[in-house]
Amino acid sequence: MNDYIWVKTSVIALLAGTVPALADPGSNGNDTFGHMMWGGAHGWWGGLGMILFWGLIIAVAVFVFRMLTSNRIGETRDAMKILKERYARGEIDEEEFLRRKQQLQG
């Protein structure tokens, strides 16, 4: 659920950041295209497309990075299972196994 909220907040922030970019650049007085694509044939759609494209690229990169570095559900090992594995490998004796087992079971 936290990932959903994080992605939702990022998208809202990205869209809110585009508002100044969508403002009318006005005329610069010499009938040129104005600022980048705003006054050209693409109008403000070209600029919006560019902003959305780079926003999508950044969002995907962040999403992939967070997924690769986060703890994955289901990969946590149970303490009792680890204790049994250590006992089976001979790392601990029966007395220590029983003592730790009782501690884990409460």
From TrEMBL:
Any matching Pfam family: SHOCT
Record keyword Metal-binding present: no
Membrane-spanning parts: 47-68
Coiled coil region boundaries: none
N-terminal signal peptide: 1-23
Domain SHOCT: 78-104
Membrane is among the record's keywords: yes
UniProt entry keywords in alphabetical sequence: Membrane, Plasmid, Signal, Transmembrane, Transmembrane helix
InterPro entries: SHOCT
Identification of the protein by name: SHOCT domain-containing protein
Source organism per UniProt: Roseovarius indicus
Classification lineage: Bacteria, Pseudomonadati, Pseudomonadota, Alphaproteobacteria, Rhodobacterales
